[in-house]
Design goal:
two-stranded antiparallel ribbon, 2 strands, 5% strand, single chain, ARM-type_fold, DNA alkylation repair protein, DNA_alkylation
Length: 235
């Protein structure tokens, strides 16, 4: 299946309501408005195809860029490739749910995410923290350094309220994910979440929203989800 065929198939799945929803979250033209679940039949036909993924991502079309993440081969991508994808990730649904997700299936995930976290750029930092969320929610606890993650929790506690808006959200989600999915630091994550308290997310022309990691961790504990790991990172 070539680029033109995939673009035609994606366009045929477009919904105006979905398009409006994506735009309200920060997407801009070009885009079709395709529900992510509707992409699965096309993805099953293609499976992994890195050259096609690169062509799709380069279109700048949000739906094509998202689909590129689904069919990408993370192990075929270098650090420079991930950096290039992040350069073109113009809002959080690309940085956190396409690039970070794809990176989370690569062996170089932690090394690249560490650099993004220290970059000082809002979406790179957001993508870096989000990548750790995807990793922690999928990989065995033994693959992580407890000391390193403990320091990352301290960093969140010290800096989250002064961080850029999208980075705040990803950092808050990191605390939540450690608290739920990484058993060695569950107690520290709970303490960190309580110390942070509500995290205000300011939004243009809308009321602020507040994130509550402590409450959300407790909800998962009450549901018996402590230690939860998802089978796959990508759908």
């Amino acid at each position: 299946m070539d680029l033109q065929t995939v673009m035609q198939e994606l366009e045929a799945l477009s919904k105006e309501r979905t398009k409006k929803m994506y735009i309200s979250n920060g997407a801009h033209e070009p885009l079709f408005g395709v529900a992510t679940g509707a992409m699965k039949p096309i993805a099953k036909k293609i499976k992994r195809n890195q050259p096609l993924a690169e062509e799709l991502y380069a279109t700048g079309n949000y739906d094509a860029m998202y689909f590129a993440g689904i069919i990408a081969d993370p192990e075929a991508m270098t650090e420079a490739d991930f950096d290039r994808w992040m350069d073109d990730a113009y809002f959080y649904m690309l940085s956190d749910y396409v690039v970070a997700v794809t990176l989370a299936e690569a062996d170089i995930a932690q090394a690249v995410a560490d650099k993004w976290i220290e970059s000082g750029e809002e979406l790179r930092m957001s993508g870096g923290w989000s990548c750790y969320c995807w990793l922690l929610g999928n990989r065995p606890d033994a693959e992580f350094s407890e000391e390193k993650l403990a320091k990352m929790l301290d960093k969140v506690k010290d800096t989250i309220h002064d961080s850029p808006e999208r980075t705040k959200s990803a950092m808050n989600n990191f605390v939540y994910t450690v608290g739920v999915s990484y058993l060695p630091l569950h107690e520290k994550a709970v303490e960190t979440a309580k110390a942070i308290g509500p995290v205000e997310m300011k939004r243009d022309k809308k009321k602020s929203s507040f994130l509550h990691a402590s409450e959300n961790i407790q909800k998962e504990v009450d549901r018996g989800k402590l230690g939860f790991k998802r089978k796959y990172v990508r759908c």
